[in-house]
Amino acid sequence: MFLCLACTPTALTLSAPLVQEFENALARILVEEAHRELLRAPNTQVRYDIARSNLSRIERSINPKLLQPEARLLLNELRQTLNYEISLKKHQSILERLNTRSALLTAFSHQFVIPMPNSKDDLTQIEENTKKFSGLLTQQIVSRMMKGDPVAIIAAIDALEKLSNGAEVIADYQYRVRSLGLSTHETNTLNEAYKSLYTSVVTPKIGVLLEKLKDNKPQRKSVLQLSDGNAYYEIKLRQSSDLLAKDIHKLGLKELTKLYRRIEVLSGKPARNVFRDNRDDPGNYFANSDTGRHQYLNKVHEIIKHSAKHFEIPLHSLTVKAVDPYRADYATTFDYFGETLHINLTNMKNLPRYELMGQVRFHSIPGLHLATKKGGSNNAQIAFSSYLSIDPITENLNALMYLVDNTSLMIIDTGIHALGWTERRAIEFMGENTALPEARILQYVNEIYMEPGRWVPSVIGRLKIHQLAEHHGIDFTAMSQILIVLRSQSIALLEQHLVEHHSHRLNAKH
Asked: Which one has a higher pLDDT value, 40 or 382?
């Protein structure tokens, strides 16, 4: 529990500067800890509990009258983030309907969060939970199907197809068995027994449910078509921008037009021809072989080392690895967690060369790997990483095509969830207006249905930071250094810093 020194009558009398310094330091600690807790939270309920707890903590521990402007801004923005998490809790049902896989894994999560086993006897709990899970499947999925909820039915089909072979669950069990240090024979016996249990008890039920669900598969719906869905979507967007969803959509189209013009000037061809030629040219992909995967990873390491040197950033403990085979069917193409950049190399035809630098910089250095270590809200980290991934005024054709992809994803996100676009329209838009392979387009569209608003913070953050840089006459190199020094803080704090910096420069001239 924190003690508010400013609340004691003698504190200000004895040493007002010391108390003020303590109060500002305490505010910063609270802000960093709250953001860190939110980032680690596994679900909406936990984030809601964290938000309520931290709001109470702020009221008990901080005297706002003693805060300096920067600390006050940080604290106010934290309050907004916490209130946002509390607001989202009201839309829990929407989240569950959009992402049934999360609901299924939540039902099964007690298996994953039990302590590591100390003996073979401890493994029996996992086996019992597996049997229970097969019953939960029937209850959860059939109840949704009987209600005729189209969103839940489609999400359930996607979830069940990815859970049907049990690869993720079986791999987790095998990891726990290895921790016991048993003989090879005992280890193999336990693993085979569990695999047999899963495939004989759970997999058949999944198969039956899939057949029933596919017979009733409806047209996919966006969050806009759900009860209270529009309010939920606007709450999601409000964390990134004060603009309405339709205005964010228009902003994206305007930015896309600018990017097209730059591509056409550089290439001398219509932008859509550039996209088509890049997509169809085998030379724009690494070989779909172990050699090609090895070359791809070598290029990733080369980009990371160059970025660390260019931005003068230590590498820290960053690891790069291919996605484990058992996760390959449903893992995203690029992901960063656990101080590791994970890349899905299953099919190299889904990984065009042009996006490599932007993706690696965003997900590692100077992006998320650095941003997550420095704290700040999730949206601030995304904005920080998005701007630093590519110089906004680049004349590199590959980099511009990466920015086109990023901007187009925001357009179809708002198109689907605010303007009523169909799934087919979103797929066709991406096919005509980006160089992404079809499989990647389908994956992105699916993710947008499951997680509305996901692609807005990246584009809005990048554009806002670039706008501030232009306004204050700061180039990409200088702005990058400012962002790295400031850490992944909010746009408002960055703006305040730039205004103060500009004022100091004017005073120095006089």
From this structure: 382
What does the alpha-carbon distance between residue 389 and residue 483 come to, in Å, rounded to a whole number? 12
Name the nearest CA neighbour of 82 among 21, 38, 43: 38
Strand partners, 322: 343
Q: How is 106-162 classified by DSSP, letter by letter?
A: HHHHHHHHSPPPSSGGGHHHHHHHHHHHHHHHHHHHHHHHHTT-HHHHHHHHHHHHH
Q: In the 8-state DSSP scheme, what is residue 222?
A: -
Helix (H) or strand (E) holding 319: strand 319-322
Task: Write the DSSP symbol of residue 164.
Answer: T
Structure tokens at 459: 């584009």
First vs last C-alpha separation in the chain: 48
Q: Which helix (H) or strand (E) holds 44?
A: helix 44-61
3-state secondary structure of 373: helix
- What is the average pLDDT score of the chain? 82
- Residue tagged 């992006």 (tokens): 367
Distance CA 466, CA 491 (A): 11
List the structure tokens of 117.
């086993």
3 state DSSP class of 244: coil
How buried is residue 106: exposed, middle or buried, by Cβ count under 10 Å (0-12/13-18/19+)?
middle
Asked if the peptide bond before residue 392 counts as cis, ω within 30 degrees of 0, the response is no
Neighbours of 343 (CB within 10 A): 23
Q: How many CA atoms lie within 13 A of 350 on its CB side?
A: 17
For 325-423, where are the E strands, in sequence order? 334-337, 340-343
Q: Which residues of 230-258 are buried (b: 16+ CB within 10 A; e: fewer)?
A: eebbebbbebbbebebeebbebbeebbee
Average pLDDT over residues 377-383: 85
| Rounded-to-integer distance, Cα 426 and Cα 409, Å | 9
Q: For residue range 451-462, list pLDDT tens digits in order.
A: 889 999 999 999
309: which residues sit within 8 A by CB, 6+ positions away? none
Q: In sequence order, what are the residues at sequence separation of 6 or more whose Cβ sits closer than 8 angstroms to the Cβ of residue 53?
A: none
Two structure tokens written together for 409: 């994803």
pTM score over 0.85:
no
Domain ranges of the chain: 5-89, 94-218, 231-464
Mapped onto helix, strand or coil, the DSSP state of residue 359 is: helix
What pLDDT is stored for residue 95 in this prediction?
60
Return the H-helix or E-strand segment holding 338. Answer: none
- Percentages helix, strand, coil for the chain (3-state, rounded to 5) are 75, 5, 25
Q: Name residues whose C-beta falls within 8 Å of residue 265's C-beta, 6 or more positions apart in sequence.
A: none
